[in-house]
Amino acid sequence: MNALDGGLFSGAFTAWVEGLREDEPDIVAIDGKTSRRAKGGERHPLHVVSAWAPRQRLVPGQEKTDAKSNEISAIPLLLERLHLTGALVTIDAMGTQTKIAETILARGADDLLALKDNQRSMAEEVALFFDTPEQRSLAPFETTDADHGRVETRRHRVSHDVAWLNGDRCAPGEPRFPGLKAIAMAGACVERGGKTTVARRFFLSSLPLDAPLLARAVRAHRGIENRLHWVLDVVFHDDLMRLRTDNGPRNMSTIKHMAMNLIQNAGGKHSLKVRRKAAAWDHDCLKALITGTAQ
Length: 295
What we know:
Blueprint: E1 27-35, E2 46-53, E3 58-65, H1 71-80, E4 88-91, H2 98-106, E5 110-115, H3 120-130, H4 133-136, E6 141-147, E7 150-159, E8 182-192, E9 195-205, H5 211-221, H6 223-234, H7 248-266, H8 272-281, H9 283-291
Parallel strand pairs: 1-4, 4-5
Antiparallel strand pairs: 1-2, 2-3, 5-9, 6-7, 7-8, 8-9
C-alpha cells in the first residue's frame, strides 16, 4: 500500500488546532521523513512523504521514495491519492515545482509553496519586491510568542501584485507557476539570552490569501514536524526501527500512521504514550480506539 486509503475529512476528527478558523480552508501539509535505521547494505533508508491535516490531526496519505531527492516525483503521486477539494496545500521549497502546482490545482485545491534557493532568481526578485519603500511602508500582521526566556515576533506581508512576476521580465526558462495569485513574506525576529536573530521566508500561492491567513497557514505547516514526525520518533520510536527486508519498513510505516490516527482521535487528557500503552494492555481500550468510541 503506497498511501493510506480513504477521504481526507472524516467527521470523527474535529480537533481545533493552530488557531485555524472554521471559515478558512483546511490545511494539508506535505513533507518527508527518513527512518534512519531502516537501511540495508548499499540501499537507502526508508524515506516517506506524508500528508498531514493539522485541523483533523490525522495522516490522510503517504508515498514511499527511494531517497530524499526523489520527493519531487513522489509528491504528485501522493496528491493524486487525496481528496483535496477546497484545501490549501503547503509544501517546503523542494516541492516548489510547476508540475506539483499544476497537480494541486487539478485536484481542486490551492497551494502555498515556499520559495528558496531551488528557485533562486525568483526568490531574489520577490525579496527585492518586499524591500521596496511601498511595501516596507505597509504595516505587517504581527504575532508574538514568549516562552522559556525566548521571545519570537513574526511579521507577515502579502501582495496580490503578481503580474510583473509572470511578465516579459522573466528570464528564458523561468518557471511560470499556474494560477499564481499572491506572493508572501514571513519574517521572524527571535530574542533569547540577549541575542537577536532575524530570518525571512518567501512564498508563492494560488490563493489570494491575506496576511492573517498566511500566518496561520505557515504555523500550521510546522505541525507536520512537531505533531507528526516528533510523535513518530518519540512515541513510536521510528528512528530506532530496524526493519529492512522487502516491504517491511513501508508496511510498518503505514501501520504507525494508522495507529497514530486512532490514538489522536481518542482525545482525553492522557498523553499519546499513555493511550498507546493502554491500547496494548487492555483489549477493551483497544476495541474502543478501533471503533471510535474511546472517551
